[in-house]
Amino acid sequence: MANEFPQALTIAGADSDGSAGMEADLTTMFTLGVHGMCVLTAAVSGNSYGIDAAHNMPTDFIAQQFKTLAADFKIRAAKTGMLSDSELIRTVATNVKAGTFGPLVLDPVIITKHGAMLLEESAYETLRQELIPLATVITPNFFEAQKLAEMDITTDADMVTAAHKLQDMGAKNVLVKGAHHDGDQDEVRDFALLADGTSFWLSAPYVATEHINGTGDTLSAAITAELAKGNGMADAFRIAKQYTYEAIADPIAVGHKFGPINHWAPKMTRLK
């Protein structure tokens, strides 16, 4: 029968070097046994040294992609990636509300893993107001969690408080990613808060490497893929954490500087 195979959607920009964005999302979904589809929001010209140019798709074209996919496929989960301005964010929010795309995993690409702001303040506020209330899951990195929760995070208790603040903003389930910018640390600990109030910590060894492009995309895409397969939220979080760690821990030699992670490495990849 039509549409029985698990299908997931990434709403993201294309990264020309394949290390992050839509390419990382689709590769993750593929290796986890899910058919991935995309709504292309932007195109980026970049390599392992950095980004040289970027171009947003017209919002009417973005809206048409949503309508075209909804008319044919049974998308069981969706995720967002980098959404660069207020108009684009509003377009995505409007079409997510209008369509049937399953639970929404919001990767709030606001601040880099090194702490650099990516969005102008107006776009940041639009994301807070328009997309976070639609999120079934939100997956901020350490710096994004501080920005969104409007607080410094220095202790485990702070991470717990930040997660509850994000839930109060409308996100049903929260995964706050722990700091991984300290070369002296031994592990990376993330805090998960579920819609029913259940919470737990996820831990993996810290890996000292510059091959970490696309880690946030991969984690959120893995959660999306597992939800599309029908797994529960806690299992989706745990599988995504382990998958991402194994992809970081066994790097591939691609590029001269900041390379991609290895989506073929995870040994727990499953097709159920």
From TrEMBL:
GO function term, MF aspect, one: hydroxymethylpyrimidine kinase activity
Gene3D superfamilies: 3.40.1190.20
One GO cellular component term noted in the UniProt record for this chain: cytosol
Catalysed reactions, as listed in the record: 4-amino-5-hydroxymethyl-2-methylpyrimidine + ATP = 4-amino-2-methyl-5-(phosphooxymethyl)pyrimidine + ADP + H(+); 4-amino-2-methyl-5-(phosphooxymethyl)pyrimidine + ATP = 4-amino-2-methyl-5-(diphosphooxymethyl)pyrimidine + ADP
EC number: 2.7.1.49, 2.7.4.7
GO biological process, any: thiamine biosynthetic process
Pyridoxamine kinase/Phosphomethylpyrimidine kinase domain span: 15-262
Top EC class of this enzyme: transferase
Annotated pathway: Cofactor biosynthesis; thiamine diphosphate biosynthesis; 4-amino-2-methyl-5-diphosphomethylpyrimidine from 5-amino-1-(5-phospho-D-ribosyl)imidazole: step 2/3; Cofactor biosynthesis; thiamine diphosphate biosynthesis; 4-amino-2-methyl-5-diphosphomethylpyrimidine from 5-amino-1-(5-phospho-D-ribosyl)imidazole: step 3/3
Keywords associated with the record: ATP-binding, Kinase, Nucleotide-binding, Thiamine biosynthesis, Transferase
UniProt similarity note: Belongs to the ThiD family.
Protein name listed in UniProt: Hydroxymethylpyrimidine/phosphomethylpyrimidine kinase
Taxonomic source organism: Schleiferilactobacillus shenzhenensis LY-73
